[in-house]
Amino acid sequence: MRVLCVGEDSTRGNGRPYEGLSKAAVDGSVSITMSGSAGVVETLRRSHYDIVVIQQASPDMKLLRHIRNSRVPTPVMVIALTSTPLEVAELLSIGADDCVPASVDPAELLARLRAIVRRVSGHDSLTLHIGRLTVGVDRREVHIDSKPVPLTRREYDLVELLALRKTQVLSKETVLDSLYAGESEPYGKVIDVMICKIRKKMRNFGIDEPFTTLWGIGYRLNEVAFAPLGARASAVESRTGQPAKESCIPVMSGINIMSSTTLDLV
């Protein structure tokens, strides 16, 4: 999950996330990029972020109103040191997706962030259903035809990421940032290796090509592969062209949309 955090921690003035957000990032594979309020709309238009977190000593309606008036669709959460019920109500009416105090428990904050991102992605439930594929977000489990697929923690994170954004092509840089947020950067081929391992595991469940590789760009979930057998045959016959044959050849580096100010959390 990529988070654009706007504002400063006024309790310390060091331009770092509030403690709860920092802990949520470490515990939940969240990548945080710090930003000032100036130019935030341009940043959101230039790069993809799953959610914006505005952290302030007290709610400032101007920044939120500026983001919403710019018609940027990215969801926004406000974290405030102090706020009144009337201020929270106004924030929500302007367009905030949530407003929480700075003292919020990291586990609750992470759950709220995930819930907002999941809802914006079109998934209201904690369980994602894509044909024969079921992803239990709350249990962190993947099933095919109700049978559990044995995945490592990172492999699950990758499947969940692609399932949540099933209509999008994700560059390798985006995947790396989502899976290894706040950690030392892994070697370049780690995603390619992980993709190959997941493919091999899913073949045991009759899923030949769970992912579509766009060479030099990135990966996308192959929804057709998870369709019920009868529906899949019909879908393949109706296609105007044949899909490219998948393999475990490493994908070339895609467009790097990472901000140079990405915060490394330790």
Radius of gyration: 20 Å
Instruction: Please report the number of helical segments.
Output: 9
Helix content: 25-40%
**Overall pLDDT, averaged?**
79
- Could you give the distance between the termini? 17 Å
Low-confidence stretches: 9-14, 249-266
Largest sheet: 5 strands, parallel
Domain OmpR/PhoB-type: 125-223
DNA-binding region: 125-223
Protein name: Response regulator transcription factor
GO molecular function, one term: transcription cis-regulatory region binding
Provide a descriptive summary of the structure in words.
The protein has 266 residues and is an alpha/beta fold. The chain folds into two domains: 2-120, Response regulator (Rossmann fold); 127-238, Arc Repressor Mutant, subunit A (Orthogonal Bundle), CATH 1.10.10. Helices cover 35% and strands 18% of the residues. The chain is built from nine helices and eleven strands. It has helices at residues 19-27, 40-46, 61-69, 85-94, 106-120, 153-164, 172-179, 190-203, 229-238; strands spanning 2-6, 31-35, 51-56, 76-80, 98-101, 127-130, 133-136, 141-144, 147-148, 211-214, 218-221. Strands 2-1-3-4-5 form a five-stranded parallel β-sheet, sandwiched between helices. A four-stranded antiparallel β-sheet has the order 6-7-8-9, covered by helices on one side. Helix 1 packs across helix 5 (106-120). Residues 9-14 and 249-266 have low confidence and may be disordered.
